[in-house]
């Protein structure tokens, strides 16, 4: 009897001590996991195009054209922080090639314009990138940089008659068949930006480097992505590198702030390979070779740069955008461009605040709390403390419900204290160990009778389901219908009215 009892205790102890699940295929690097959690931040398109009423800067005006009359980067950062945005990414150099920082790589920089000279004479900074970075730090939001690989100013296929014979008439080195190496120039600019320092001498931390893939020229330039990546990794190891397809984050395939319901965080190509089309980028590749999640770049106005003829989208339109990207596990990078004064237009800030009010009103109605009873079809190793279903309600990102390795389908049930009116469901997979789930459903029950309210495919970082109509329920059941490895659920939440009956 002692032997049998000892054996039973040993079996229970062994089951309870089961290790955490092994990572499944590709997993996010720490910088990518932190990037996922930002969800929503600002794009700031600002430069000569703001003053020439262009988008791609083909006019090639001199730096004198850059002349904001009331520049206030603090107003940008405060406005974004007040609107609930996690950071901002500034166009340090757009396709026109004019640099907004004090670079040693080109004469084509705002520092050579009269506006900058007047500021310096008055003892003020004229380095737009440093000013924006300092404002972001002041208001507690993150800072990132856009540096266009395509450079019209150096592209021999793009006419620049107005600059002929001036100090801005620089060698046309963009292209594989030109004299000179554009990759060296770009690497030099990138190095300056990733080693940028605040006035106190500390390095500016960057959360994202945006290396645009757009080009309006027939000139063929093969970019040295490996060199660029090494520069970023060495100097800003916590920064995500965005490109058409990576390496850390990819384009979502459109510029309208939406993606399709099925979205995989992995793809199977790098920047050096043939580009995916828009539809492929939206969906991604299940079980792909690289963790390269999607980011949706979109605009509050029709254009990227500010144009007097345009008006901002409504808060309702932005809310729909949010649901179709953040609600589908894709980060939202919303462009909010300063006007010719150098400030964000009042009407744009007002819309951002209205949008925030809508998000808060929608999201701040949780019905599921840690006090509720939760049960599951099984628990990994019987270890409820580490892997139990109650973990989906604890609000932590490092805990989750898990089953045993060979179990890829299962369910958990959450009992409400009374009948509630539910109009939205939010689900999160524990992506730190990979994206696994390919099919799931949510059922709402009253007195043990259930009806299906959600049918999903991919889950990923976060999935928000806004139901077409409210449903009354006293219980919620999540069913995992398909998963390529044992599923890991980090969070389940229902939104709605807290008490019906």
TrEMBL record:
Family: Belongs to the glycosyl hydrolase 29 family.
Enzyme class per UniProt: hydrolase
PANTHER family referenced in this protein's UniProt entry, alphabetically: ALPHA-L-FUCOSIDASE (PTHR10030), ALPHA-L-FUCOSIDASE-RELATED (PTHR10030:SF37)
Lineage: Eukaryota, Fungi, Dikarya, Ascomycota, Pezizomycotina
GO BP term (any one): fucose metabolic process
UniProt-recorded Gene Ontology molecular function terms: alpha-L-fucosidase activity
Enzyme Commission identifier(s): 3.2.1.51
Keywords (A to Z) from UniProt: Glycosidase, Hydrolase, Signal
Pfam families per UniProt: Alpha_L_fucos, F5_F8_type_C
Domain F5/8 type C: 355-497
Cleaved signal peptide residues: 1-17
UniProt entry tagged with the keyword Hydrolase: yes
PROSITE patterns: FA58C_3
Protein name per Swiss-Prot or TrEMBL: alpha-L-fucosidase
InterPro entries for the chain: FA58C, Galactose-bd-like_sf, GH, Glyco_hydro_29, Glyco_hydro_29_N
């Amino acid at each position: 009897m002692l032997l049998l009892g000892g054996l039973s205790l040993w079996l229970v102890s062994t089951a309870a001590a089961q290790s955490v699940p092994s990572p499944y295929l590709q997993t996010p690097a720490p910088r990518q996991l932190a990037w996922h959690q930002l969800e929503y931040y600002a794009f700031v398109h600002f430069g000569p195009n703001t003053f020439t009423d262009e988008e791609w800067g083909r006019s090639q005006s001199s730096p004198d054209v850059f002349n904001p009359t009331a520049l206030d980067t603090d107003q940008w950062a405060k406005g974004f922080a007040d609107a609930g945005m996690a950071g901002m990414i500034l166009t340090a150099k757009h396709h026109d090639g004019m640099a907004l920082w004090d670079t040693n790589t080109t004469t084509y920089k705002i520092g050579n314009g009269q506006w900058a000279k007047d500021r310096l004479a008055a003892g003020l900074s004229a380095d737009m990138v440093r000013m924006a970075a300092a404002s972001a730090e002041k208001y507690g939001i993150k800072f990132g940089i856009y540096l266009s690989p395509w450079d019209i100013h150096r592209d021999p296929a793009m006419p620049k008659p107005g600059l002929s014979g001036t100090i801005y008439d620089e060698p046309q080195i963009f292209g594989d068949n030109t004299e000179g190496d554009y990759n060296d120039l770009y690497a030099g600019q990138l190095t300056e930006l990733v080693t940028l320092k605040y006035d106190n001498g500390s390095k500016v931390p960057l959360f994202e480097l945006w290396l645009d893939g757009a080009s309006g020229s027939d000139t063929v330039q093969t970019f040295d992505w490996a060199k660029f990546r090494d520069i970023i990794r060495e100097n800003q190891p916590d920064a995500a590198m965005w490109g058409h397809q990576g390496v850390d984050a990819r384009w979502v395939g459109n510029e309208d702030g939406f993606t399709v319901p099925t979205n995989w965080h992995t793809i199977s190509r790098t920047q050096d390979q043939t580009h995916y089309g828009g539809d492929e980028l939206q969906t991604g590749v299940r079980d792909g070779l690289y963790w390269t999640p999607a980011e949706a770049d979109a605009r509050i106005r029709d254009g990227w740069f500010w144009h007097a003829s345009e008006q901002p989208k409504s808060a309702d339109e932005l809310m729909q955008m949010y649901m179709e990207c953040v609600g589908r596990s894709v980060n939202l990078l919303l462009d909010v461009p300063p006007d010719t004064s150098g400030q964000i237009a009042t009407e744009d800030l007002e819309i951002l605040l209205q949008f925030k009010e809508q998000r808060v009103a929608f999201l701040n109605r949780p019905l599921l709390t840690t006090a509720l009873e939760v049960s599951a079809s099984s628990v990994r190793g019987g270890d409820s403390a580490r892997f139990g279903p109650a973990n989906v309600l604890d609000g932590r990102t490092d805990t989750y419900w898990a089953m045993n390795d060979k179990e890829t389908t299962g369910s958990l049930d959450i009992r409400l204290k009374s009948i509630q009116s539910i109009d939205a469901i939010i689900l999160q997979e524990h992506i730190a160990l990979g994206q696994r789930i390919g099919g799931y459903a949510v059922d709402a029950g009253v007195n043990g009778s259930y009806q299906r309210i959600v049918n999903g495919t991919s889950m990923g970082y976060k999935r928000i389901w806004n139901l077409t109509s409210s449903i009354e329920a006293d219980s919620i059941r999540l069913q995992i219908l398909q998963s390529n490895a044992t599923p890991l659920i980090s969070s389940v939440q229902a939104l709605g009215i807290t008490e019906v009956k």
